[in-house]
């Protein structure tokens, strides 16, 4: 009888440990869906480059799925060229806004999460995209990942 109770306890403990380990592994594999929108005033070239670079950088994070709809977060980028009256300046101002998707009263609505601004050179869009994704990861996604644990 004592052996039977001990074996039952041991089997229950093993099952609970396997369940907890499996749950932890599943939580670590949660994908966060992100939709990227870029509005580059007067320049499709910058828009396309920013989308490409940001997509690539988000995918390197490992737990991000870039989607067109049903997103957890939306990363909105506004890119504007800086001008003076007499000349074109080789710089851009980029605003980045992160929004969290919330299902409320039967509709998908967005709640403001965070905003930042970058002033950069046209020739370094790739490194600026890395900075944008680092900001988004640190200020938005890390907080979300903390809630999912």
Question: Can you give a write-up of this model?
Answer:
There is one protein chain. The protein is of the alpha/beta class. Helix content is 46%, strand content 37%. The chain is built from 3 helices and 5 strands; from the N terminus they run αβαββββα. It has a 5-stranded mixed beta sheet, covered by helices on one side. The N terminus is likely disordered.
Q: Mind telling me the C-alpha Rg?
A: 22 Å
Side-by-side strand order of the widest sheet: 2-1-3-4-5
Distance N terminus to C terminus?
A: 40 Å
Shape assignment: elongated
Helices and strands: which structural class? alpha/beta
How is the biggest beta sheet arranged?
5 strands, mixed
Strand content: 35-45%
H/E order of the elements? HEHEEEEH
Separate helix tally: 3
Residue share in helices? 40-55%
Total beta-strand segments? 5
Low-confidence stretches: 1-27
Average predicted local confidence, pLDDT? 76
């Amino acid at each position: 009888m004592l052996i039977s109770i001990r074996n039952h306890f041991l089997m229950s403990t093993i099952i609970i440990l396997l369940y907890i380990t499996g749950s932890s592994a599943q939580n670590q594999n949660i994908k966060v869906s992100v939709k990227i929108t870029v509005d580059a005033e007067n320049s499709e070239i910058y828009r396309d480059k920013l989308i490409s670079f940001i997509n690539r950088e988000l995918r390197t994070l490992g737990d991000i799925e870039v989607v067109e709809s049903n997103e957890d977060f939306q990363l909105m980028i506004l890119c504007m060229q800086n001008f003076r009256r007499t000349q074109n300046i080789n710089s851009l101002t980029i605003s980045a806004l992160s929004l969290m998707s919330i299902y409320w009263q039967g509709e998908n609505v967005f709640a403001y999460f965070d905003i930042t601004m970058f002033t950069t050179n046209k020739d370094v869009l790739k490194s600026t995209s890395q900075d944008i994704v680092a900001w988004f990861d640190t200020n938005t996604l890390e907080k979300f990942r903390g809630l999912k644990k």
